Amino acid sequence: DPGWLLAGGDEDPLATTMLTGGWDGPRVLPPTDLPWSVWRPTLLLWGSLALLVFLSGILLATVVHPQWARHELLPYPLARFVGELTARAPGSSVPIVLRSKLFWLAVGFVLFVHALNGLNAWQIPFIVFPRNFPAFLNARVLLPDAVAVNAPMAWAVFIPQLFFAVIGLSFFLRTEVSLSLGLVGAAYLAMASFMYANGQAVEYNVAGAGNSNLVVFGAWFAGAVVVLYVGRGYYAAVLRGMLGLPRAAETPPTVIWAARGLLLCAILATGLLVQAGLDWIIAVPLVLLVLMVLMMIARINAETGAFLLLPEWYPAAILLAVAGDAALGPTGYLLAGMVSAILVGEPTEAVTAMTANGLRMIDRAAETDDADSPIPHPAPPPTRLPRTPLAMLAAAAIAFAVLLIVVLTIQYNQGLNLDDKWATNVFPSRVPDVASKLVEELSARQQLDQSTAAQGWERLALLRPRPGALGWISLGAVLVLACAYARLRFAWWPLHPVVFMVMGTHPAMHLHYSFLLGWAIKASVVRLGGVRAARTVEPLMVGLIVGDILAMLIWALIGAAYYLSTGLYPPRIGTMLST
Q1: By C-alpha distance, which of 505, 478, 151, 483 is closest to 297?
Q2: What is the pLDDT of residue 371?
Q3: Cα(246)–Cα(576) distance, rounded to whole angstroms?
Q4: C-beta neighbour count of 497 within 10 angstroms
Q5: Which of 105, 277, 339, 516 has the most Cβ atoms closer than 10 angstroms to its Cβ?
Q6: Residue 358 to residue 76: CA distance in whole angstroms
Q7: For the whole model, what pTM was predicted?
């Protein structure tokens, strides 16, 4: 058993049945009594693969950080926010923002709002402060019925939602970035209207490569091309250093070793997949696409501050669209789809973004005069950056082991929360549903046996891209490249290419009104009072973010205490990033 599925996909009374239904014995089932022998192949495959990808993400961020931070001067809005939150006046141990009345006013207001809404969620009737406005759904009649009804994410355009943390964060973004993130809904409707007007329905299928998902992939791919092109001199120097050739003197040795480690991790991950049964000609592009997802999440975050990102496309779905049904085959798709779903299916907390922001904060702490803040920061003792990736990997391995034991112990005693339809039904069924349809279609065309038997280079003879796939990918790529060119060519150009990279994705469609409101506030403040007024308002915006975080933590602790004392799940309370 290579470990793709627990117990090889068979029903096991202890390993699988109890995992879903829970233990009904007279005592709590301790960790030592869990079926670890059955779990061993699965943990060896997925645990090793997860740690390799995690380390790859750390090393990838280490490689690109000098180019992004020192050559391209990306703003790193999240790192800047932390700097604003912790900045201290000379000789003071208290952050400056804590002395601001505007900060405490914002924190108090946000906590008050979430307290009211939380009480109502706990069935304690009180005043409700609305943060979404479904009444605006009636505005759909102003647009063609096809767009309003059939476009998968069109409903989010007609239900404005407010997230205090997003409003606060958008104040720290460049105006073209916050405006672009705020216009995501309008851009999505424009694309949907164009498609419907030309007889094309908007298809959303993350695992099966719907046309809207292919457009987003094309945008991400073009974004990756732009990133590599802009830093081509730096990356070429890194490549020469990896090979032991002469390189630019300013290329840090740390980056060279990080690049070598990244290459080694990619090779090991590919070899692990091949050993487990995935054809090498599928495993190689699959690993490259996973790394592209991690790199672009970090890039979008470092350049725009968007902290909740979903690609809304699976690497396996892209391979299926570009290679075709027969070339990939149901087995190849199923295995690649499992890798895609587990590793980058929901990469909202990508390690590359965290590492990149962490490295930027190390840089800021070492600077004697921060360019983003008028407050000088004393330089701490030199930080040994070469040790950072190893320290993070060690922390990840320990956390992985501890959480694995805790989560499995809870699940084997309590069973799965089957009320969570997303985690137990919708998300796990995406890949198997597409694989099942793939078997049916290949059988109908009498290609199933040929597709299943093909190995290695033989798959190239079966290469047939799905109809229209390359066109949709090209559309997304052209939109990003044209926007990037216009941004460099024309000073008045108002949009950032990120608008096409997140267009139609769930997080962006939920958050776009908050980004638009934050942009409007900042633009108004700067226009009326200039940069000095914007600096005065910054503590208020920091307070909105901190208030959202505190409310989330407070209600999470209350919910955890309730669960531990009663064994029941607490009600869902919308705080920072939930509705």
Answers
A1: 505
A2: 44
A3: 49
A4: 23
A5: 339
A6: 10
A7: 0.89
